[in-house]
């Protein structure tokens, strides 16, 4: 029928323009982020600092420490930890600076050794590789590797000025972020209350879901990733030193930092250590690769589940898809750096999107998608009634443990507010009583002095009066 065809055409029209609009929005967003890179970086670092220090500040406030003092204590603790890590990492005993310089200066030599090894293989299998085309390919590849290594070493040596500029910009960004994060930490509960007052009552459950999900996912992901990087970097550096890999501390640091990139990052760090060790001893390279894989699997199997429990619960298949999409979108916006940033943000964004989907799906349909034997939506199902007919969309979206933590935080905050109000009332009552007593007391000053003198005179006159005697 014509009406059906018209409806189909209309739907296709809106679908096509929705796709075009989404592409345009992504492009414009990338352009805006490029122009506003410094403010965006300040916002990102501020969020990271607040999410990392929010828990200790809340615990200090629960113990009776004022929030401003607790924020200052958390900052001091953070600076002490960073200073200790910096002293350990860049101490003369480890010599990280010299090791990185040695790695960069030795890069052309590594490539030349690789080329010589290829030439030996070529001589050994000359009867197979006599084809002129294959020979030209091999020579071209070897020359490209040598030129690339020389260029990298030269750029690394000549890029001191650019590196210094980048460091100065980073210091400025982090400095502003520290100031903004400190004020946000002090006023965080008040900011939350004020934000909730701005939201209509009908939308407060949705706002609460987004708040709990974001803080749970991002906070858990950041803290867990940093701890994983620290554990993997330290363990790999020690193992590299034991097996005799050159520049073990620098390679351990690289392996730990590469762990920030999910799934593929640790493999890159282990492969780099194995490649460097291969030129000294193939056995050491093999042991370094085995140790790296073993350490990563131990951390991912026994440590990560404890850290990221109820924080980032994403299926491995979704992780891979999210990494590919994040890398593609970030690379289209900002090249290699954007690709890495896109991979970093992909997993928490997918976790947040999953929680939002669960919330709206169960709320709109009344069907429970979360189950204990699920794949993409595995979890402990919750219900609003004892008959288990109405799913609790909010608890299913954020997780049972997160909901309990949020309720506990609310209870503690309510108790603190009640104590604060009681203290204010007590102070006001004490001030009122003091004012009442001051009004009831005899006047002071000259009038009081005159009265005292008159009383003394009358007393003396009474004593001197013969009739009284």
Automatic annotation (TrEMBL):
Compartments in which it is found: Cell membrane
InterPro entries per the UniProt record, alphabetical: AI-2E-like (IPR002549)
Region (Disordered): 430-469
Membrane topology of the entry: Multi-pass membrane protein
Signal peptide coordinates: none
Domain of life of the source: Bacteria
Record's keyword annotation contains Endoplasmic reticulum: no
GO CC field: plasma membrane
Parts of the chain that traverse the membrane: 12-33, 39-57, 69-90, 167-186, 249-276, 283-303, 315-333, 340-361
Keyword hit for Membrane: yes
Compositionally biased residues, Basic and acidic residues: 430-440, 451-469
Coarse class of the protein's main subcellular location: membrane
GO BP annotations, alphabetical order: transmembrane transport
Record keywords, A-Z: Cell membrane, Membrane, Transmembrane, Transmembrane helix, Transport
Family per similarity comment: Belongs to the autoinducer-2 exporter (AI-2E) (TC 2.A.86) family.
Annotated protein name in UniProt: AI-2E family transporter
Native source organism of the sequence: Slackia equolifaciens
